[in-house]
Structures are given as structure tokens and as C-alpha cells.
Amino acid sequence: MNLTILCLCDQLVNGAVAERTVRKWFARFKAGNFDLEDQERPGMLNKPKSTIYDHTVKLGYINRLDVWVPHDLTEKNLLDRISICDLLYKRNEERPFLKQLVTGGEKWIIYKNVQRKRSWGKRDEPPLVTPKAGLHSKKVMLSVWWDWKGILYYELLPNNETINSEKYCSQLDKLKTAIEQKRPEIANRKGVVFHQDNARPHVSLTTRQKLLEFGWDVLPHPPYLPYLAPSDFHLFRSLQNSLNGKNFNSLVEIKTHLDTFFAEKPERFWKDGILKLHERWRKVVEQNGSSTIVIKHKV
């Protein structure tokens, strides 16, 4: 026993053994087990871990970290997602409303856009390095609203300014005027069906009162699923592709780029972004709210 303790002390001095390991060894000694060698621990297949690992690598698999996602859905979130998609899908089947739908969102536009490039390399070679834009790089927020025919209204906020409820409500007033001018058929007769995500300024009491005053039909938004938000999934992905590698020196240059981008998009682009929503709602219901639904997307 004394010899074993001496060996243990030597390990503590030279090898910096963790306290948890020391406790485990003393538990062994107390039980009468003085063997300092680790015992072989076969897995469920009665094979050492090293053998299973080698076979896994040969099959082409690599060990990597999980991908972070914004939210871990609770059971209630998942049920809400399914029930809302089911409600919207059935409602559109009974009385189509997607041509009355107005949607929008916000996106940061960075002045200097670094383009990440893909490249092929051997497994043991590090990837090429591209400096990432700083966390506080110069940027401006885009607020935009659109429908199946195109852009209704957009606005660029002053540099680094963000959205709050008061600002959002003033934007809604301008959007209402734009809809009355560009889409009188839904402003005066059919009625606006309004779609927005669950960002805090969008769901504040002030905002809800404003939308109630307008008399717009506000759709519920399923929790935490970007491809059910047309701006995030459809418009902003395409816009970001057009921004990659671009550098702007002024707000005027950014506005010029946006005007050109919006004007050059064909009619089919806007139609696909809105009129295919019912397909996405159906897929969510059919696949029990899965976050891994694959939908073909062209930008």
C-alpha cells in the first residue's frame, strides 16, 4: 500500500493528475484494488474504441462539433409550429389569400462585404483564411416590405441605428401609404394580410395597437423556422449574394445598389417568394415540424 501511495504521489508531482482521478484511485485502493493500469473497456460491439474509430474514419466520417442553432425548441414551440402551419395551410386552401399578403423584415447592410470562397483541399490541410468583418463594422439597417408583385416600400436607417417600437410604427404609416398608392385593390377592397416575424418591435403593444387601427389581418408566425419567413429565406439570401465582395463608400451607393437589385429581379422571383408559402406550411405539417426540411431555393 505504501509503495502504491508513493507511486501516486510521484504521478501527482510530475504528471499533474486531476483531483477526480486521484479520488477514483483512492476508491480503488479502499476496495483492495492496487492495480494502476487502466482496464480494457470494450464497447457495445465488444470491440475497443480505437478499432471502431478507425473503421469509422475509413468509411469517410470525420469528427466535428455540432452546429449551433438560435433556439432549442420546447415541446410547446414544436406544437405551436405545427398547429400554426396547419391553420395557415388550411385557411389558404379554403380561401386563397397569398396575393393579399404583405411581408417584410430587417437586414444589416455592411459597407465592406468580405466574400468567403470555397476551395478544395486535402483532409490534413487547413482551410484558406479569410479575415472576418469586425463585430462593429460600419453598417446600416435595411427595412423592407414586399408582396408577390415586388417591393412596396423600403427604408435605410442612419448608420448603426436599430429598430424600436416607435420607429417601427412610423415605418408602418409609410408602408400603409405605399400600399394605398401601389396596391389599391387590397387597400380598398380585399384587405391587407400582413406577415411579420416575432421580433420584439413587431409584437409590442404599441405595434399591435397600430395594426389594429389599420384593420389589417395579421398572420401568426411559426416559431424559429427561417424558411417560413419569406424575407429571411428568399429575399435576403439573394440580396446577400449580390452584396458579397462589394464595398460601399456612402449610403447613396448602398441605395443605388438596392434600387438596381430590386428592379432587376424578374416577376417569377417575387411570385415564388410568396405564392410557394403554402407548400412550406404543408411540408412542416407532414414532417411533424422538422427543422431539417429541404426546399429547393434559387437565388
Helix count from the secondary structure assignment: 11
Could you give a short account of the major beta sheet? 5 strands, mixed
Radius of gyration of CA atoms, rounded to a whole number:
28 Å
Strand order of the largest sheet: 3-2-1-4-5
Q: What is the H/E string? A: HHHHEEEHHEHEHHHH
What features would you describe in this structure?
- With 299 residues, this protein is of the alpha/beta class.
- Helices cover 46% and strands 10% of the residues.
- A 5-stranded mixed beta sheet has the order 3-2-1-4-5.
- The longest helix is centred in the first third of the chain and has 20 residues, at 75-94.
Features:
single chain; 299 residues; single-stranded DNA binding; signal
Summarize the entry for a quick read.
The chain is of the alpha/beta class and 299 residues long. Helix content is 46%, strand content 10%. The N and C termini lie far apart (72 Å).
What is this structure's SSE topology?
Layout: H1 2-15, H2 19-30, H3 49-58, H4 75-94, E1 101-110, E2 139-147, E3 150-156, H5 165-182, H6 184-190, E4 193-195, H7 205-214, E5 217-218, H8 230-243, H9 251-264, H10 267-275, H11 277-286
